[in-house]
Design a protein that fits this description.
It is a single chain. A hairpin with a 2-residue loop joins strand 1 and strand 2. The longest helix is centred in the N-terminal third of the chain and has 22 residues, at about 130-150. The chain folds into 2 domains: about 1-275 and about 425-460, 2-methylcitrate dehydratase PrpD (Orthogonal Bundle), CATH 1.10.4100.10; about 280-405, 2-Layer Sandwich (60s Ribosomal Protein L30, Chain: A). The protein is built from 22 helices and 8 strands. The protein is of the alpha+beta class. The strands form 3 sheets. Strands 6-5-7-8 form a 4-stranded mixed beta sheet. Strands 1-2 form a two-stranded antiparallel ribbon.
């Protein structure tokens, strides 16, 4: 496929959607064991953060919104609803803390879109654990393929790729669960292309996690419609007239044979998807690693600090634009609040992002001492380094740097204990009467052996009371 003055001329016999539907044709038996283990871990992690997300104000509003849509699919912390409504609620709930996994390759949070879409339909159908794993992997694969085509120019235009690219993953996963043939899968992907949405201007509001929920809901709808014979244009992604997804949403594109090769590696394996240690924007994670290590190793007290320099990529700082956040959603996108809280309390978990800390005199005083020091990196530069310089009142300067961040698959991958401790943190935060041992056994250990996914998902239905 070649680009010519803002138009794409199709030089391939098949469209991107045609090729993508071929890539997604693999099933559970085609997957290596490592991919199965990772899929279970990502599903487990997504549902764990959803347990905590259901306890937020945004979670309560979303749960209340879908209550009238009776159905068979679990809404985390709230009973059941129709599949589209459950996907909407769970996608939003699982993304509200920004504690869900993320992919630097696709610049998306793939799992809070794909997992809710897949589970919503799997519960309705009584699908097996193997079918759920295969559908999840297919959804992540679809996001990876589409991302490799649109490149980072799409994100740099201001689109929130979790919504705009995630919808293809949700549609692919949903199509897999429904067992759609190639033709109907193609229609589901074409329908999804018209549902792509999400603006970065809504970061720091409840609408940011809504992007994940809307993408999950739209993917379910696209697959359900396609299953009934509803059609879409096979050229909806790469229409040569420039009025398809690529022409309208993207800058530079890369619709190469490599991106569309049916034998390409599974996205969940290469380059992989990262887990999160901290419940905030991943652009903060490297600098938080720096800060926490520096203050702990040097026993820095808040009253010793004169000034803090946060040396970070300009691209990250552009997203983290809340210098004086006024609510917890903004705080998750604030360098100043995050570093002040890390220095003062030497931790950054769910219980560290609270209203009381947001208005604390100590945190406000420390936040005012944080200075942003941007530097430029190329879009493809990795690992991206962040550094911190903590200037103390006695003249000493404590410095620390970090390449990558904890939770990244190539640097500090999660262990089994990390997953279990994160689940426990989310349960404590939510105050939920959830079966921790059952979650670990059914989702993390035995998911592929379950003949009916409802044996596991029923653990998520207990109601949660909003706390923030």
């Amino acid at each position: 496929m070649a680009r010519r003055t803002g138009r794409w001329v199709n030089i391939m016999p098949e469209s991107v959607i045609d090729r993508l539907s071929d890539i997604l044709a693999k099933g559970f038996d085609d997957m290596p064991g490592e991919a199965i283990v990772l899929a279970k871990e990502h599903i487990f992690d997504t549902l764990a953060v959803g347990v905590a997300g259901a306890a937020t104000e945004a979670g309560r509003i979303m749960i209340d919104y879908v209550q009238d849509c009776a159905g068979s699919s679990i809404v985390i912390g709230a009973g059941r609803a129709a599949p589209q409504s459950a996907a909407l609620a769970n996608g939003t709930i699982c993304h509200v803390h920004d504690y869900d996994d993320d992919s630097l390759n696709t610049v998306t949070h793939p799992s809070p879109v794909v997992v809710p879409a897949v589970l919503a339909l799997a519960e309705q159908a009584g699908s097996s654990g193997r079918a759920v794993i295969a559908a999840y992997v297919a959804g992540v694969q679809a996001i990876g393929v589409v991302s490799d085509i649109v490149n980072l120019g799409h994100y740099s235009r201001g689109w929130h790729a979790t919504g705009t690219l995630g919808v293809f993953g949700a549609a692919a996963g949903a199509a897999s669960i429904l067992g759609l043939d190639r033709s109907r899968t193609r229609n589901a992907l074409a329908i999804a292309a018209s549902c792509a949405s999400g603006l970065q201007s809504n970061f720091g509001t409840m609408t940011k996690p809504l992007h994940a929920g809307h993408a999950a809901q739209s993917g379910v709808m696209a697959a359900q419609l396609a299953a009934r014979g509803f059609t879409g244009n096979r050229d909806a992604f790469d229409d040569a007239r420039g009025n398809g997804f690529m022409g309208l949403y993207c800058g530079d594109v890369n619709a190469t044979e490599a991106a569309l090769d049916a034998g390409r590696p599974l996205e969940i394996l290469t380059p992989g998807v990262n887990f999160k240690y901290y419940p905030n924007c991943s652009g903060l994670h490297s600098i938080l690693d720096c800060a926490l290590a520096a203050v702990t190793l040097n026993d820095v007290r808040p009253d010793q600090v004169a000034r803090v320099e946060a040396i970070m990529p300009r691209q990250h700082l552009g997203l983290l634009h809340y210098e004086a956040p006024v609510n917890l959603l903004q705080a998750r996108f604030s360098v100043e609040f995050s570093l002040a809280s890390a220095i003062a309390f030497r931790s950054c978990g769910l219980d560290d992002i609270t209203e009381s800390r947001l208005v604390s005199d100590e945190i406000r005083s420390l936040s005012a001492k944080v200075e942003r020091v941007p530097y430029d990196v190329s879009d493809k530069q990795w690992p991206i380094e962040s550094s911190i310089r903590i200037h103390l009142n006695d003249g000493r300067v404590i410095e620390n740097s970090s390449k990558g961040y904890r939770g990244h698959v190539d640097y500090h991958p999660f262990s089994r204990n990390h997953h279990i401790e994160k689940l426990r943190e989310c349960i404590r935060y939510a105050g939920r009467p959830i079966d921790e041992a059952g979650m670990i056994s059914l989702f993390l250990d035995r998911l592929e052996d379950l003949p009916d996914i409802r044996e596991a998902t029923t653990l998520l239905a207990a109601r949660t009371t909003a706390k923030s």
